[in-house]
Specification:
Chain B: This is ABC transporter permease. The complex is a heterodimer of chains A (293) and B (390). Chain A is of the alpha/beta class. Chain A is built from nine helices and 14 strands. Chain B is an alpha/beta fold and 390 residues long. The chains are: A alpha/beta (293), B alpha/beta (390).
């Protein structure tokens, strides 16, 4: 488990991270969301030891990490970067060696990963001759070469086509299943909805939420959607009902208990037609919008 | 499977490998080697070529002159003399068998030297001297004097207390060679250090590298890789040059001293290059794009040109001072060693100063590098870079 405790960082006068604390559990995919400039990349760089925190700690399985390198971490930076003029396989072997792998091991691991991405035939091509999507796959391969104990990926899905997104998702799942803590940032909320087990929401350098996706969904699970035959305005005056949104016969409401829900349902049926009465399951995108509001 | 190969070594090997695959590097190295070998071969061919002349005399007194010339000619010239009638001699001139013919007139008081389409200047000078000698001897003997009793023309011998002329010109030539080699290597191998730093910065590989290994290891590897390349190239140049000089038929003076000082030069070159390598790495991390380097490399290039001029023109006190100033000492101390009037402690002290400077520069370069290399927006000044937080 990777844990951040009270991490703060400012650049000159500008406070970028303010008392950031959250955990990235092992064996789960943790999504990291927030607007541009909210502090995601800075947080990830601090986790990777590339930037120093002004205060606070980063620890892995209870052991505090020094401001040193993290050779057993897999990292995909926001600004992608490898050597454009070097053949794909050569730079993967080089990076593998820097991670402490023997040359031959690095080569076989690199070839495995490339074939997994369907790139084995391009292994001797220069990186710059590959399409952007394929370059990104090589970038992912670079972060996985040394079978890292922790994966930190900044926007791994940006710029990928749907097929590559699927491949990427399955690789991330794979690592999470091995018990590796995986933290990745993304702006694709619909993707997060199906992928992540855990969500961290950051805004203006502060953590607004950090919990499992199920808990987040459950916290909003008392919502119901109603579709009636006539105007639903009368719901506003019902005790135990909080109206979130009403437009004509459609309404989105919160009931304070199951009893209230049943009472409102029977009352609605007395008043006329009930086309829909259902529990509303919010997507993580909805929850995110709700929380940052 | 994990290995324990240190990261700096992996980085250094990559630098070497990348460079050895670079066609421009290989071509320029081979080109320089050919120039070195070629210039030694050409100079030994020119040096060992002996002048050869055939001259015919058309009368007895002309033959007397040629006989005198035969006695006085320099050792590296071959002269064959013969008698012939004038028509024969003209024919042989036309056939190219003769270089000139000599005839006398006016009662052997005047001589004329005739060539086919011109007479070699060295030959005509020698014949003119011969004519003078013969005519003077004749006048003297008619006055009853013996020419050998007269004072010799070369009664005054010129010599110098400080070194000797040959040695001084050797020092000058080697000084030029050392300065030039240092200047060339500093640019040829220094610039790539800066470029390789910029490349990694520009492509953002540095973010992956920095999270994997310490930046000190990365910087050290880069510098060592390029130092290895520069040293190998220098040793090849010096080795091939000295070998060619040794094998050439021409006798090159001071080869022993030169070989010995070349050894010192290699050591000083190493130290001076390390200082420069640190400077290049720091410059590279300040720049954002390769184009920025054009401007920021100005000061380093100025220093290099100054060192080149010190190597070419510095003398006496200034040269002694320069031989203790880091970077300049890489060229100035070997030049002083060539003249052979330096105590052993002097190069050792100078080397100690140089290595201490190396250490300081490398630490400073690392400090700049650490701060600037993660910086992305625009190029930095030294002052701004030092203010950055890690």
């Amino acid at each position: 488990m990777l844990e951040l405790q009270n991490v703060s960082r400012s650049f000159s006068e500008h406070q970028v991270l303010d008392d950031v604390s959250f955990t990235v559990p092992g064996g789960a995919l943790t999504g990291f969301v927030g607007a541009n400039g909210a502090g995601k990349t800075t947080t990830m760089r601090i986790i990777m030891g590339l930037l120093a925190a002004n205060s606070g700690t980063v620890s892995l399985n209870g052991v505090e990490l020094s401001s040193d390198t993290r050779p057993n971490f897999g990292y995909m930076p926001e600004e992608r970067g490898l050597y454009p003029k070097q053949p794909v396989i050569d730079q993967l072997v080089y990076l593998g060696q820097l991670h402490g792998l023997a040359r031959s091991t690095a080569r076989s691991r690199a070839m495995d990963l490339l074939s997994r991405f369907g790139l084995e035939s391009r292994s001797k091509a220069k990186l710059e001759s590959l399409s952007l999507g394929n370059q990104q796959r090589v970038q992912v391969a670079a972060s996985l070469l040394h079978e890292p104990d922790v994966l930190i990926l900044d926007e791994p899905f940006s710029g990928l086509d749907p097929i590559a997104v699927d491949a990427m998702s399955s690789i991330l799942r794979d690592y999470a299943t091995r018990g590796v803590p995986v933290l990745f940032s993304s702006h694709q909320l619909d993707l997060l909805d199906v992928l992540v087990d855990h969500l961290v929401i950051i805004q203006k350098g502060r953590i607004l939420a950090s919990s499992s996706a199920d808990d987040l969904r459950a916290s909003q699970a008392s919502r119901h959607r109603l579709s009636l035959g006539s105007d639903a305005g009368w719901l506003r005056n019902e005790p135990g009902v909080t109206v979130i949104d009403i437009s004509g016969p459609e309404a989105l409401v919160n009931f304070d208990s199951g009893t209230t829900a049943q009472r409102v349902l029977s009352q609605a049926m007395e008043r006329g037609t009930v086309n829909e009465f259902s529990i509303y399951r919010p997507s993580l995108a909805d929850i995110y919008r709700e929380i940052i509001r | 499977m994990k290995t324990t190969t240190p990261a700096w070594l992996i980085v250094a090997l990559r630098e070497v490998e990348t460079k050895l695959r670079d066609k421009a590097f290989i071509i320029s190295t081979i080109g320089t080697l050919l120039v070195i070998i070629g210039s030694i071969v050409v100079s030994s061919i020119l040096g060992s070529r002996t002048a050869e002349f055939a001259v015919a005399a058309t009368d007895e007194s002309s033959y007397e002159v040629l006989d005198q010339v035969q006695k006085d000619k320099p050792g590296d010239m071959r002269l064959s003399i013969a008698k012939a009638t004038e028509p024969e001699a003209r024919q042989q001139l036309a056939d190219g068998e003769l270089d000139a013919m000599l005839s006398s007139s006016n009662g052997s008081q005047e001589y004329s030297l005739t060539g086919y389409d011109g007479v070699d200047e060295q030959l005509s000078q020698l014949v003119a001297d011969g004519v003078d000698t013969v005519l003077t001897d004749r006048v003297l003997s008619s006055a009853g004097l013996d020419a050998t009793s007269l004072p010799a023309a070369d009664a005054l011998a010129v010599s110098q207390l400080q070194g000797d002329a040959d040695r001084n010109s050797m020092v000058k030539a080697m000084g030029f060679l050392f300065s030039f080699l240092f200047y060339m290597a500093a640019l040829l191998f220094g610039m790539p250090i800066a470029n390789s730093v910029i490349e990694e910065k520009q492509n953002r590989v540095v973010e992956i590298l920095a999270s994997t290994i310490r930046l000190r290891q990365l910087l050290t590897g880069k510098i060592i890789g390029n130092v290895i390349l520069a040293m190998i190239q220098l040793l090849v140049f010096l080795g091939v040059g000295l070998l060619a000089a040794y094998l050439s038929p021409l006798e090159i003076p001071f080869l022993g001293v030169v070989s010995q000082v070349a050894g010192w030069f290699v050591v000083f070159f190493f130290g001076g290059f390390l200082v420069l390598a640190g400077a290049w790495a720091a410059l590279g991390s300040l720049a954002t794009r390769t184009e920025d380097l054009q401007q920021s490399s100005g000061p380093v290039v100025t220093v290099l040109i100054a060192v080149l001029f010190i190597g070419l023109y510095a003398k006496d006190g200034f040269l002694v001072a320069a031989s203790y100033v880091p970077i300049a000492s890489s060229v100035a101390m070997p030049i002083r060693l060539l003249s052979g009037e330096v105590a052993l402690w002097e190069p050792i002290l100078s080397l100690a100063v140089l290595l201490a400077t190396c250490w300081v520069v490398l630490l400073f370069a690392e400090k700049i590098y650490r701060r600037a290399v993660m910086h992305t927006g625009g190029s930095l000044t030294l002052r701004k870079a030092l203010k950055l937080e890690v």
